[in-house]
Amino acid sequence: MHSGRSAFFRVEPCGCPTRRSAEKIKLRQNEEPRFLRRNEAESAFFVKNSSRAFFLAGSDAVAIKELERSLIEKIAGLELNDTFRIKLDADECGIEELNNSLMSVPLFGGNQVVSVSSAESLTNEKKFEGLLEKIKKLDESVLLIMKTRKSVPARQLLNSSLVKYCAEKRAAFYGYAPNNEREAVAWVTDYCRRKGYRVTADAAARLVTLVGMEPGEIVSEVEKIALNFDGNLTKENVEELLVDHRERAADEWAEAILQGEARSVALAAKATNSGREGILAISILFSKLMELESAKSGEQVVYFRRAAVERAMKRWNSEKIGKALEILLKLDINLKSKPQDGAIARIELATLKLLEL
Known about the structure:
It contains 16 helices and 9 strands. By secondary structure, it is α/β, with parallel strands linked by helices. The chain folds into 3 domains: 2-175, Rossmann fold (3-Layer(aba) Sandwich); 181-233, Orthogonal Bundle (Helicase, Ruva Protein, domain 3); 250-356, Up-down Bundle (Zinc Finger, Delta Prime, domain 3), CATH 1.20.272.10. Helix 5 (131-136) links the parallel strand 5 (112-117) and strand 6. The protein is globular, with a radius of gyration of 24 Å.
């Protein structure tokens, strides 16, 4: 059972719902699936053993990804990154390619996972005619997971016979996420109230500014702060734990690049909050590169930075510093013009380019 405010879920240790929770989400006649209800205090995700097709929708990408991992591990007994998992994009493939993937089980043997992204396209019943009947006949060895890539209104999904079928099987999940910062702040306040945490209005607002509006991400940070400050969320506590932590992570990433360490690629996600705070990391690395340039010109470096600067100067000449600044400038422009468009991928690619200098 997965429960929480519309977009947040929890996997119970046993991996299955209790009788009480199952009764709680039981569909009544003429009642729409609970997972499609907006602003419910609680939502649940009920997995039946007979469910082999799962429709995961909503704007909380974190929740959907974690739920996919849980389904694969709990139901198929596999690791998320198993190489034989078939991945398709509904925007790029048609019904024939999807059918072929669903029929390819004998070629692989054992449990097989077919993961389809851009699943909002599957609700186009004209394009994917016959898909629902194919899903109803799925072999027990096939686990089909359909994930939306774009934020789709819940009411729109309800018009799809495919989504309705999954919901009736208790195999559908709608990951609601706030539409704006005002909703997100209200979400944080309500979550803290239900958890018994004390939160001030300015703390909730600052948390949303730093973390973003993904409920899964918000909950993770709220729990960290509550643990460190005995359930008290003030603006000062939020900044002490999140801002200082993020700056330290960005500083570590920048230093790893200056020293030519391959681990800097792995550090990129943590240093930039999965791409959402890339500008902060860029500014820190920019400052360090300018510090190197100043040191090469004979300017004094503060004492505690001398050892690190001297090591970096062996690797970085003026030409390399110039090229690095060009890479950072281009990355900065891209992140500001398209902040949500593959930010972490852009940052990791820029990191690789910097290491190649």
